[in-house]
Design brief:
Protein Transport Mog1p, Chain A; six-stranded antiparallel beta sheet; 4 helices; 132 residues; single chain; alpha+beta
Length: 132
């Protein structure tokens, strides 16, 4: 199952990259303006995974939120901004992948990985944004 999650995450990253189209220097700046950071999250890394995709990796303490609350936050917040929920796949104790799209802007993927939650007390979350 561990390999399936890693493969799935890689596939999501690749699919998101296919829809990219913005310049590298502007991508992270646009991402930080478009995609909110859930309250209580600690940003671990913010980077350009490729020339076409911005990534924010963060973690949230389980005592402050749940996986469902995280997904609800991003679904509600982004749909209020005109994004459409394209898919939400729940892999139970392993995590989830949510994909939102906005025709004039791009694709946002929200990936949670739940495998180490009991050890760390935190939920790792990766936000991937590709702008057209």
């Amino acid at each position: 199952m561990k390999n399936k999650i890693h493969i799935l995450t890689s596939i999501v990253f690749c699919l998101v990259c296919l829809f990219a189209g913005c310049t590298q220097e502007n991508l992270l700046g646009k991402m930080k303006k478009i995609v909110p950071i859930v309250e209580g999250a600690r940003v671990l890394e913010s980077k350009l995974a490729t020339e076409k995709m911005g990534v924010i990796m963060m973690e949230v303490e389980v005592s402050k939120t749940s996986q469902k609350d995280l997904l609800d936050f991003y679904k509600d917040t982004m749909t209020k901004q005109g994004w459409e929920l394209k898919s939400l796949k729940d892999y139970g104790k392993n995590g989830s992948v949510m994909e939102l799209v906005k025709d004039d802007l791009g694709t946002l993927s929200v990936v949670t990985i739940m495998k180490k939650v009991k050890k760390t007390g935190t939920i790792p979350v990766t936000l991937n944004l590709t702008i057209k």
